[in-house]
Write a structure and sequence with these properties.
This protein is an alpha+beta fold. It has one domain: Alpha-Beta Plaits. The protein is built from 3 helices and 4 strands, in the order E-H-E-E-H-H-E. A hairpin with a 4-residue loop joins strand 2 and strand 3. It is globular and about 40 Å long. InterPro entries: Dimeric_a/b-barrel.
């Protein structure tokens, strides 16, 4: 499993930002190998994190290379006050079963 974490400080959003953000989210969820996502916010630091989980690196690369994602990345300075991305190979995942990230485990 792989994770891609998009960490950013929000700037000024506009209609185009919201449109691209929605398109990217829908497209990511439709990619075979998409496992789920989580969003976190640190109000004190002013940061937001979107973590996407992927079955394979190839699935993740489909998102990264998609034209809509490439377009949004080229315009990020209009909407964000800084960002970074962390791509990681997940070695292990465990817990008590009370929290799930995989889309097939989540209630409809």
């Amino acid at each position: 499993m792989y994770s891609s974490t998009f960490i950013f400080r929000a700037g000024q959003y506009d209609e185009e930002f919201h449109r691209l953000d929605q398109e990217i989210a829908e497209m990511a969820r439709a990619i075979p190998g998409y496992l789920g996502e989580e969003t976190w916010e640190s109000a004190s630091a002013g940061l937001i994190q979107n973590v996407y989980y992927w079955e394979s690196e190839d699935a993740l690369l489909q998102l990264i290379r998609h034209p809509t994602h490439v377009e949004a990345k080229s315009k990020q300075a209009r909407w964000l006050d800084g960002y970074r991305v962390v791509i990681a190979k997940v070695i292990r995942e465990y817990g008590d079963g009370g929290l799930v990230t995989r889309k097939e485990d989540q209630p409809a």
